[in-house]
Amino acid sequence: MAATDWSKLTFSYTKTSTILYCKFKDGVWGEVESHTDDNILLSSFAGVLHYSIECFEGLKAFRGKDGNVRLFRPEENAKRMQNSAKFLGIPAPDTELFISMCRQIVKENLDFLPPYGTGASLYLRPTLIGYNPQLGVQSSKEAMFMMLCSPVGAYTGGNLEPCNAAIARNYDRAATFGTGRYKLGGNYAASLYSLNIAHSKGYKAVLYLDPATHTLIDEFNSSNFFAIKGNKYITPLSDTILPSITNKSLETVAADLGMEVERRPVTVEELATFEEAGECGTAVVITPISYIDDKPSLESEEYTRYRFTETECGPKSLRLYKTITGIQYGEIEDKFGWCIFVD
Ligand code: PLP
Ligand code: COI
Fold it and tell me: How far is the C-alpha of 246 from the C-alpha of 72, rounded, in Å?
């Protein structure tokens, strides 16, 4: 990519040099194949196309200050994919295969790894699909595991640019005893209708509530929720949200910085008591929340507004952001041993 392009990157697809994949058939994973063509050949009856037998992951590779390339906690993504695959009843790559394909895709696409200092990174999208042709509703026997990548910049606006959100009282993303805790493509499909309404009303993100009572905060459409109150880092405890690796890391970082960490049910009314609120996740990193509107329905023009900031990221969120990105870009000692080197 041209050197001038890195700073303009958004979170969107760029064709890179290669994609990798391997197939599970007759009880074993086959050879890892590398292809320059990012189209794949698939039976029109593959389970992924009819019954959404698919799960995916998201992680990033960073070009560090010292020139080294780091992957952030890939074994956590491997474990989460194994959990999602178990729920779908399909074979999953073991952690060794997962991480070796993470390393390989980065090495084969170094031209697309943004240089240090651009604030951009190479996003890895491990994807697992039900592969064999099938008609009955059942878990696929064969699977295809793909390792894809794309250089990315900020998810919404610029890095640390505050984003607004609306609470979805009349839509759920996941059911009470359903799929919210797994990273299934179907969860994202289920969020699109409400997300599109929110976008049409000028909101960038949707904040979902717990589907059982609609009184507790769950998570955003593509990230977890966190808040700052005094010296506390507060984040929801819920069975219907994705166990975010970024959030888990931020809990550790916050405690290490001397903050109290609370993972517990968080009510909507409590929003009024928070000094800072944010989204956290691989794609959004930390994105501060400017305001959250609580509406009787997403379509409604009425709202109760909870405001956290106009334009600036709050000081505690900023400190957390600088610490986690500092570890990822090799600027701060990785004392928790989270990063692995690609070479
Ligand atoms: N919640 C949802 C719905 C997500 O899509 C993501 C993104 O992966 C997250 C939370 C954050 O998870 P992680 O920090 O592991 O990327
Ligand atoms: C991520 O943060 O990696 C995600 O998967 C969120 C979104 C882009 C789906």
Answer: 9
Tokens of 269: 């009314």
How many CA atoms within 13 Å lie on the side-chain side of 178?
A: 15
Q: Residue 189: phi, psi to the nearest 5? A: -60, -40
Rg over CA atoms, the chain = 20
* Residue 3 scores a pLDDT above 60: no
- Residue 105's pLDDT is 98
223 CA from centroid of ligand 2 (Å): 7
Average pLDDT over residues 79-94: 98
Q: pLDDT tens for residues 169-187?
A: 999 999 999 999 999 999 9
Contact 281, 318 (CB under 8 A): no
Task: Give the integer Cα–Cα distance in Å for 139 and 258.
Answer: 46
Whole-number Å distance between alpha carbons of 108 and 125: 15
| 203-215 residue pLDDT tens | 999 999 999 999 9
59 alpha carbon – ligand 2 mean position (Å): 8
Arithmetic mean of pLDDT, 250-278: 98
CA–CA distance, 89 with 68 (Å, rounded to integer) = 38
Ligand 1 pocket by C-beta < 6 Å: which residues?
58, 219, 222-224, 242, 244-247, 281-283
Strand bridging mode 143-152 / 223-229: unpaired
Look up residue 29 and give its amino acid: W
Write down the residue that tokens 């979170």 correspond to: 11
Axis-axis angle for helices 74-88, 95-108 (nearest 10): 120
How big is the CA angle at 287 (ends 63 and 269), to the nearest 5 degrees? 155
Active site residue 322: no
